[in-house]
Each structure stands twice: as C-alpha cells, then as structure tokens.
Design a protein that fits this description.
Blueprint lengths: L11 H10 L7 H6 L8 E3 L7 E2 L37 E4 L5 E7 L11 E8 L5 E5 L5 E3 L4 E10 L5 E8 L5 E9 L5 E8 L4 E10 L3 E12 L12 H10 L3 E4 L3 H4 L22 E3 L3 E3 L5 H11 L2 E6 L27 H16 L5 H8 L10 E4 L7 H17 L4 E5 L7 H13 L3 E8 L1 H6 L13 E9 L4 H16 L4 E6 L3 E3 L10 E3 L4 E3 L1 H11 L4 E3 L3 E3 L6 E8 L4 E8 L5 E6 L9 E8 L17 E6 L3 E6 L3 E8 L4
Parallel strand pairs: 2-14, 14-17, 17-18, 18-19, 19-20, 20-21, 21-22, 23-24
Antiparallel strand pairs: 1-26, 3-6, 4-5, 5-13, 6-12, 7-12, 8-11, 8-13, 9-10, 9-12, 15-16, 24-25, 26-28, 27-30, 28-29, 29-34, 30-33, 31-32, 31-34
Bound molecules: alpha-L-arabinofuranose.
Length: 663
C-alpha cells in the first residue's frame, strides 16, 4: 500500500490520518486531493462493475420485444409443444381475395437448412385480380411510420416451370396500401430476396401481405420485416427505443440470456449458445420455457454486439449441464424436475463451453473466432466473465457437472472470471450448499437471487456488512421487491445503499426482470413495460439508473449522517474519481421528512452549487402507459455550505452531487 499511495503531501496530518483510518485500501490521488480523513472516516473501494443489467427472454422481451423483427413465426417453426393451439401457420392467414384460388401447405422435405425444417409451399392456380397469398400481422399490431423504410426479406424457391411474380405489400387493416413492391421468383434453389419498403403514412395496424400475382408454385421461408432504423442501424437489429433505454442506464455489464431460460425445461431445452450464432436461417429455434417461441434471431452475436454498442461487459450465463428444477411442470408440486446431461455427454459439453471463449475472444482465423468474424466482428469481443448455472438445485448431479465445467474453464482460460450459483433464494439449503461449493472450489464470484416484499429489503439493509471478505465475492444477479410502485423502488434504493457500502464484496448487481410486454407478461414485477411502439419506465428503473449514473469508485463513511441509524433513512457517500465529484445518496422510505447532515469540513474544496436529483411522490404511485411520468426524477441546483442539513421529503430518493475537485 505505502508505495502505491500518491497523497497530496501539503497536509502531512491528513496523510498520517489516512494511513491509520483507511485500513488496507490504497488511497487514490483523487481521493487524497479531495478529502482530509479524520478518525473514523473510512474509504472502501467499490467494484466498477457494481450496477449492471439482467436480460432474460421472459415477458416477450426478445422476440416481439427488443429484437426488432416485426413478423411473428417468420420461419414456420411454431408448434403445439409451445402453446397447445400453435402450429406452423400460426399468425399467418391464407389469402384468396376475390375469386382467386390455390393451395398452401407446410413442408419439410427440402428445407433451407436442416436446423430450420419447416417451410411453406404456395400454389397460385387462379390469381384473379389480386393474387393468392399470405398475411402476417406480427406480434401485436405492427406500427409503421410515414416515410420510414422497412427491410423485407424472404427465402424462396421456384417449384413450377414459369417464374412467379409476387407482390410484397404493407397494408392497413382495411387493405389499403402503405407500401408495395413486386419481386420475381425464378430461382430453383433456395435464394434470399431482399427489398426495401417505404411507407406513405403512419399506421398502427399494419400487415405484411405476400400475393402471387402470376400462376405457379413457390416455396418460401424466413419471411422477415425489420425497420431500417434499428439501434445503431444494425441489420437484424434491436428496437431503437428499447435499446436506448438500456444504453441510458450506462450499465457496467449485461447478463444474458436469463434466468431460468438458461437451464431450460428439461435438458433438451437448455439454452445452447452454438444454436444461436451464424446465419439466421441456420439457427436452432426452440420453445421458450416461459410459454412461447425463441427464434434465436437475438442470439449470442447480437447480445455481445449490444453490450459493445452500449459499453457494457457481456456476462453470458451457461447451463451447468442440468435443467431447471421446475422442469416438466414440477413447479406445481415444488420441484424437483431437474434433469442432468448424461456423464458421457459431458466431454462434448465442456468443449462447447470452451468454444464460447474462442468464439468471443479468439483470433478471426481460429475455428470459432472465424464464425464471429464472418458475422461481421473480426476483433475479439473481450469476454471476461462467464456464469455457470442459474439458481440450480444443488444436487449431486449438479455438483459433479458444475465442478467439471469450472475446472475445465479455469485451467484452459485462467483469464476468465467464473460466476457460480447459490439457488433461487436468499438463504436455505441450496444457498448454503452453493456457497459451500464456491468456498471449497474458490470460485471468484457467487450469484445470489431473491425476490421479496419491500419490508424484507428494508429489514436487511446490512446483509452484506457481515459478509466474509476472504470468501468469494457476490453477484446479486436477480433481485426485486414485489411491485413497481414508488415504495418498491425506494425499498430497493435503500438496499442498494447497502450494496454500495459493500461494493468491496458485492462485485455486481442487477435488478430482474428487465422487460415486460403489455398483455404478454409472465412475471409480476419488471423494470420496463412496453407495447409494440412505446415504453414506460417504472420507478424501479429510475432508481437503477440513478445509482448507475451516479456511481463512484470509493465509498466514504461518516460524511453523511441520517438522524436515524437505520430504516427509514439510509445514506451513502461515494467519490466519482473520474469527475472529481462527491455523490450523496439519501433514501427516505418513511412517511415524514427526514434529515441528513452532510459535513464537508474535511473536504478540501468544493463548488458551492451542487446538483440535486430527486425521485419522490406518494408511496403507492406508479407509472403506466397512460401516465408514464407520474414518478420521474427531477433535477435542480442547490447551494451548499460546509455543514448542512438536507431534509429529504417523505418517500424519496435524493442524489446530491458536489464538484469536489477542479478538473
Ligand atoms: O427473473 C425471473 C425468473 O426468476 C428467472 O428466470 C429465474 O432465474 C428466477 O427465478
């Protein structure tokens, strides 16, 4: 420590005191330039990865959500194992307008790719005035905007002698044209057609209509429509508005693709990363255990690209070769339906895990690095973390497989930090066993999950104060208080004060789940609600964002003091070394205002004007599509003095940011 410390030596007293009170944490020069430490003041490092995001394809978060594809069941792979009433032509209508007639069937003899077995054969026998064809209305209404361009594509094959002319149109619900083009199908092998459609007006009930306007027979598959304006303009990209909401949080990391989606409903449903990369038509689609379909269009490449686009570290979570303990509907009877990959399949599975590292980080001419490069990303993605397992039941089958995976990655890739798992609850058998394994194997980080009432959070603000600093670090991978009212968000904010205070042992944290689509929601507390064209933010989102945007690298004690030592008032002070700002976070979960004393007498210099961001309202307030801004943070300026009392309104979360060092 001594050699690495770079103090402002103009004040010898403060240096001596720093060395006494700062324990074993080295002081950075910014810290020393900012604060004179007095007895009892402590600075602790805060993990730079503390505030991140958890993305799971639950609540239609991916297909029909963040993934900007507008066509539902584009590849005719929907089936009754996903929903009893679903079949290969779900969400498609067969069209024979006027007196036209023909045939439609779903085939699998000669697919585009073996991984994508079903396609449609369409025969136009009498085309009449309008043609014979199909219509898709998307996931919910397709909304289009005037003057915007949409990228249409589909794979086709001519099955008749004469080429077939097809009309590709966007229509409103009265059949009026918004945009259309004609395409010729003359190729006898599978071939992808691409065409841009620019709409002439806004429409909130758009359908894609494909009509064969000349006689003949064709095969078609992978019928796709994307807005050209995706996030960062990526082809096969993401909904701009939703992705931007993630970028706005400036998350340190994004965990994906779940959640229980990772370990799946039985071993056959585990999320296998290799099935989700490469050309779209070659990806292996499968049932989503939350009761719908995964096209895998948003796959590992797209997740990594999103992370890169918004400056977040990718944190993929891979199954620990066991399925969810609730597999096969056993959640109804308390589990355990956990299934394990047979031991004889483990060698191949271990290779699959190792191949992920090569795919993400290997050179563009390596076997798996080449697949990444062919997708348009020759540079490595810089993968640093891999999660193994998702809140699994800690059975002997889990333990043996987890250990094999852990040891294989550790020995082949010591540069990768592995995250273990500790069951679905904050305590109990799996929690103890998960932590036991982590300690024995010296796993660097352990993933904890819990969803609780707000009272649990406010009663457990000191949970991590007592964690053993010699043990693995914590990734609080999923947590939320049950609800999206202001009172829920404030309970989480109070708890997050404790995460910051323990940012030396809590390495990472992510609220869960992230997205929920209107009318397609499986989980009852979520961060961002959206429909086909807009989104609203919950108070919980605002809290997450305020913590992330006002993060610090050092936690400093005894500079902000609430008048109560525990709930309903909680506070933290952190130093943002990059900006030279001291940041005070103050939560009042009570129903009367609460005072916090901020004592800057040991701060060497500061601007007399500070910024104040405050989230407040009635405890039961929440946002909605109708009233999206009912609970939203407000920013203002305030004047400060050397020692002042900040009176936090009832039910509030306040962040005061003080410029403490001139840059
Ligand atoms: O976040 C929703 C679900 O909660 C996750 O899929 C699972 O890991 C947890 O039980």
């Amino acid at each position: 420590m001594k050699s690495s410390v770079s103090f402002n030596t103009s004040n010898i007293t403060s240096v001596v005191i720093c060395l006494i009170c700062m324990g074993c944490f080295p002081a950075s020069s910014v810290l020393a330039q900012t604060i004179e430490f007095k007895k009892g003041m402590v600075s602790k490092p805060i993990s730079d990865n503390l505030f991140g995001l958890f993305f799971e394809d639950i609540n239609y978060a991916a297909d029909g959500g963040l993934y900007a594809e507008l066509i539902q069941n584009r590849s005719f792979e929907y089936n009754p194992t996903e929903k009893r009433e679903w079949h290969a032509l779900s969400f498609w209508d067969y069209l024979t307008p006027g007196f036209s007639y023909g045939k439609i069937s779903v085939e699998s003899r000669e697919p585009v790719h073996v991984n994508n077995p079903h396609y449609v054969e369409l025969t136009a026998e009498f085309t009449g005035q309008e043609g014979v064809g199909m219509r898709n209305k998307g996931f919910s209404p397709i909304g289009v905007k005037s003057g915007e361009t949409y990228r249409f594509s589909m794979f086709t094959r001519l099955l008749s002698e004469e080429p077939v002319t097809m009309k590709v149109a966007l229509q409103d619900n009265l059949g009026r044209m918004l945009a259309w083009k004609e395409v010729q199908i003359s190729n006898t092998g599978w071939h992808q057609i691409e065409s841009n459609l620019t709409t002439i007006r806004d429409c909130d009930s758009t359908s894609l209509v494909l009509l064969a306007v000349t006689k003949g027979k064709i095969a078609l598959d992978m019928v796709s429509l994307f807005p050209e304006a995706t996030f960062k303009g990526r082809k096969n990209g993401l909904r701009t508005d939703l992705a931007q909401l993630l970028a706005d949080i400036k998350p340190a990391f994004i965990r994906f693709p779940g959640g229980c989606l990772v370990h799946g409903d039985g071993v056959g449903n585990m999320y296998r990363w290799k099935n989700t990369v490469g050309p779209l038509e070659q990806r292996v689609e499968q049932k989503n255990l939350w009761g719908y379909h995964q096209s895998m269009g948003l796959g590992y490449f797209e997740y990594f690209q999103l992370c890169e686009d918004i400056g977040a570290k990718p944190v993929p979570v891979l199954p620990a070769a066991v399925s969810c303990q609730n597999s096969g509907g056993t959640w109804r009877t308390g589990g355990t339906g956990q299934q394990a990959l047979p031991i004889e399949d483990m060698e191949e599975y271990l290779q699959e895990v190792l191949d992920l590292v090569e795919w993400a980080n290997g050179p563009a001419d390596s076997k798996w690095g080449r697949i990444r490069a062919e997708a348009g990303h020759p540079e490595p993605f810089g993968l640093k973390y891999i999660g193994i397992g998702n809140e699994d039941k800690i059975t002997p089958e889990f333990q043996s497989r987890f250990k094999m995976i852990y040891e294989a990655v550790k020995s082949a890739h010591p540069e990768i930090t592995i995250i273990g798992t500790s069951g679905p609850f904050s305590d109990g058998e799996d929690f103890e066993k998960g932590w036991g394994i982590a300690s024995t194997l010296e796993i660097p980080i352990v993933d904890e999950h819990y969803y609780k009432d707000p009272q649990w959070f406010t009663s457990n603000l000191k949970r991590y104060d007592a964690y053993d600093r010699t043990k693995p670090k914590v990734y609080l991978g999923e947590y939320a208080s049950w609800g999206n009212k202001l009172s829920n968000a404030l309970a989480e904010a109070a708890y997050m004060i404790g995460l910051e205070r323990n940012g030396d042992v809590v390495e990472m944290a992510s609220y869960a789940p992230l997205f929920a689509k209107k009318d397609f929601t499986q989980w009852r507390t979520d961060m961002i609600f959206f429909d086909h064209k807009k989104a609203f933010l919950t108070p919980n989102y605002h809290v997450q964002k305020m913590f992330s945007l006002h993060k610090g690298q050092k936690y400093i004690s005894n500079i902000v003091t609430p008048t109560t030592s525990d709930s309903p008032l909680s506070a933290s002070c952190v130093l943002d070394e990059n900006q030279g700002d001291l940041i005070f976070k103050m939560v009042n979960t009570g129903d009367v205002s609460g005072d916090f004393t901020i004592d800057l007498s040991k701060v060497k210099g500061y601007d007399a004007t500070a910024s104040l961001e405050i989230l407040t309202g009635a405890p039961g307030d929440e946002n909605s599509f109708e009233s999206p801004e009912k609970v939203a943070p407000k920013v203002s300026k305030m004047n400060i003095t050397k020692k002042f009392v900040y009176s936090a309104p009832p039910s509030s979360f306040s962040v005061i940011r003080i410029k403490a060092i001139k840059k």
